[in-house]
User: Fold this.
Amino acid sequence: MRVFITGGTGLIGSAVVAELLGHGHTVLALARSDASAKAVEEAGAEALRGSLADLDVIRAGAKRADGVIHLAFSNDFSSAEAVARSVAEETAALTALGEELQGSDRPLVTVSGTPWVPGRLSTETDPLPTDGIVGGRGRTVTAILGLTGVRSSAIRLPRTVHNNGDGGFAGLLTQIARQAGVSGYPGDGTQRWPAVHALDAAVLFRLALEQAPAGTAWHAVDDEGDRVRDIAAVIGRRLGLPVQELPEENFGPLGAIFATDQPSSSAYTRETLGWKPVHPNLLADLENIQP
Assistant:
């Protein structure tokens, strides 16, 4: 299959590109810079120059492909306004992809976060949140899954997708710890975050591309829920910093989400698609953090 991918040079995307190429697919990857184009080509894929905001380029990439995987997101969490801009940009790009693929029955694999449900693990049947700072992503993905004539599916990623000690919410905690001189966590730290290794998540993206029925959602969850203070403890030990509770506002616009208990299950995904994570879990992988 010839696959068009956005976000193909990021932590997750580079793993997905390698996974696709390793299983006989060819890849056309959106590249917004010369450096990204070089990385794409060195990985064995073809680069298509443009950014997520270049909707004509996005449509052209989808037109040339047998299937699409969307991963690109600006990941600017510096303010609520920045997050809103990122969500709006992604919504426009996903809408363009859906319009291009509609009626073709080609696969479109998109991405969201796992939902949180008070008092229990979230599952694949739980709806995505459509309010709050990232509610726009939930509304957009829900609309994509409802398209007719597109084999659309969504991989729901946990709070931390990690590789070599970096990535996701845990990576943000590490960045904040380096800046603040303390490895902090909001609340009492007993809230749980799910996690997955990027190389395991990449396998699930491929399986969804190849197998997932239209309108389905899948959970890329290995660790169902690591306590945030346990994550902060490893970060603090690796960086040689004290570990302590900090106010939510210390964590920027994501502070309230950081403080939320949000464990998640992937039992249905594993059983149905035959997905089996094999790489190190989050706490083990955080041992790779360099002081």
Remarks:
- The chain has a mean pLDDT of 95.
